[in-house]
Write a structure and sequence with these properties.
Blueprint lengths: L1 H17 L17 H14 L11 H6 L4 H10 L3 H5 L2 H4 L8 E3 L9 H10 L5 E3 L8 H4 L7 H20 L25
Parallel strand pairs: 1-2
Length: 196
């Protein structure tokens, strides 16, 4: 029931807010809100709880084409892109009560993100506000206790991010790291007016 999805989402958001956590945006595990009916329920919960942003779960074709991802993964991401238009036609976006980014990059390369793929994506990135999906970490004893296919790739991603992000910011004055609390409008502009 979508009413139950909305109630549960609202309950989780309110529990965080009551604990003093400033919730900047909504997201779902494995991008479940890529499906329009789920998006509708979550946007309703966001509006009710005063949340002004939600993750845009769609990777754009320019980013997917650059990836060194497995072919099946790329096809899956591309197939789900057909839901993109319905996502952006949600009333909360059209009324500007909830905002999102221009898109997401890095989904197709989950588990294979490297310094080279980061450089390629950053070089091709058009103006806008883009979220990089990644899973950096340490491949250590703590991770060994968790069941995940993303094990050895976490160190690779962590090192790539630590080397490539500082270079990106240094070499491109138009790039700014922000968080969802700064997203101001559906076109990706941010509250401080910085160019992206």
């Amino acid at each position: 029931s979508l009413a139950e999805v909305e109630r549960e989402a609202s309950a989780q958001i309110q529990k965080l807010q009551q604990a003093g956590i400033a919730v900047t945006h909504i997201d779902t595990h494995k991008h479940l809100h890529i499906f329009p009916r789920i998006t509708t329920a979550l946007l309703s919960a966001a509006t009710r709880c005063g949340i002004r942003a939600i993750r845009n779960p769609f990777e754009q074709s320019w980013s997917r084409r650059l990836s060194d991802a497995h072919r099946l993964r790329s096809l899956e991401v591309a197939a789900l892109h057909s839901l993109n238009r319905k996502f952006h036609q949600q009333p909360a976006f059209l009324k500007h009560t909830v905002h999102t980014t221009s898109g997401t990059i890095g989904i197709a390369v989950t588990g294979t993100l490297s310094a080279a793929s980061l450089r390629a994506m950053f070089a091709a990135m058009p103006p806008g506000t883009w979220e990089l999906v990644c899973h950096p970490g340490y491949n250590d004893a703590d991770l060994d206790r968790v069941r995940t296919r993303l094990r050895s790739s976490r160190d690779t991603e962590r090192i790539a991010l630590l080397t490539e992000i500082p270079q990106l910011i240094k070499n491109h004055s138009r790039i700014e790291l922000i968080h969802y609390g700064k997203i101001h409008s559906e076109d990706g502009s941010v509250t401080n007016g910085a160019a992206q």
